């Protein structure tokens, strides 16, 4: 797939100029992979200088939607997630696939990989040339680092006024913490999210996946699409900034707004500062997990008076509907322990399957707490094609790899794996050739350590 247009060479071999933008666009339109033509972002060019999770998760979404994503990695090392293997995972990879992992594969499909040494002048110059040809650039350098390398927004927009420049960091580009590296769990800690996560009365608990990283990637992908829409009318790109810390604060939603406002109403201090509720909800009862006769846990959420009535009728607790204390959500909150105990005693009398039959088509929100395998192999996951089977993955011993499919779908635009998660630097020579470098020049760049 050749999505990077080839500049015109001048007489001096190492100096190149660019074709006019409209000519590059015409050339690009003929180079789009046939597999992307029906996808919404076909033809969009992403230069991905990010690593680990937030940025790569963002660019994988854009790649799934049809964009051409070029991932820039450090020579010989690459994205550090290439080495983040689970225990005993090594046995699934070929001996020479030392730079591949399931973690890396999870967020780097539909991308090409190019190695560039951004500490070398030649590597930076190549990155600048790629930026001139890109619609979007995304990085997660520490604030100020890109500017030091000559890859800051003000520098790059001189040659590409349409560039949408996206910066992801731990804390943003100003403030006392701007220079601190960003890590998911630390951002969750400092944004208050760990304080409200865990069992009631227990210590703070980290979520099972990197929520701050992934939600930052989601915010960034949405902001990029908004900037692209803006560019349609202005003809100009923009700079986008996001951070794990700001994402964490944003995710506080009602808990955060309560903290900002409840102090004026005489609320208890611990409630204002946030509490851990485990599977329960601070504002709804009954809401949480209840054990069944066969040891499963059904999550039930009776969010309003109508659902409370349905629940009581379906689990043979209709007599509770006559108790005026339970007739409103405010009343049920005051009787949280009593209601939860009554619901638990009822649920324990039948199996999970029996309760599912009882609740079916009732209008009551319910579901079983699955483990990860149960969730991915569930009939609903299968019906929605949420697992992608890759049968030509060269890095694995049996040639197979399973990936989680995109979370959203477009009508008449089937998404899949157009490009397998790439080997480190797999497309370096290809991209340089598209930029107009000769085989001799590429060899020289390798020898100098620039790629």
Automatic annotation (TrEMBL):
One of its GO terms (cellular component) is mitochondrion. Belongs to the CoA-transferase III family. It comes from the Eukaryota. Signal peptide: none annotated. Keywords: Transferase. GO terms for molecular function: succinate-hydroxymethylglutarate CoA-transferase activity. It holds the Pfam family CoA_transf_3. This is CoA-transferase family III domain-containing protein. It comes from Aspergillus puulaauensis.
